[in-house]
Amino acid sequence: MNKKKKSDPVPLTGEELSKKVKELGNLSKEEKARECGYYTVTKNGIERVNMMKFLNALIDAEGIELDSTANGQGRGGRSASFRISVQSNGNLLIGSAYTKKMGLEPGDEFEITLGRKHIHLKQVDREGDEEE
């Protein structure tokens, strides 16, 4: 009953994991975890599926933020709603959930264009030229 006596498999992560899970369609969670390499083989040759590692890797692969501490800043437990309100001081604040989702870094610059009821941001590279 020693199916896989070699070393434990290297589990898939990131985009590769997301893609594989989608390909596996109607399989159970445990079967998907096993197919993605989230199992170990005990000394007795028994396969054990590591569901917690699999689910945590899947959460990370999908970019879902579950930790409420965003580098110690802001209030935890909120998710991006894609709606913001003008603050009492007249400012519009775009939170870190949006900038992280867009892959923005401190110092990234934008050109602001105002429409009737919208604001368009066009990213500008470091030399001041607009990105295509």
UniProtKB/TrEMBL annotation:
Acetylation is among the record's keywords: no
GO cellular component: protein-DNA complex
Swiss-Prot/TrEMBL keywords: DNA-binding
Position of the signal peptide: none
Domain SpoVT-AbrB: 81-126
Keyword DNA-binding: yes
A Pfam family: AbrB-like
MF GO annotations: DNA-binding transcription repressor activity; transcription cis-regulatory region binding
PANTHER family per UniProt: SLL0359 PROTEIN
This protein's name: AbrB family transcriptional regulator
Source organism of this protein record: Lusitaniella coriacea LEGE 07157
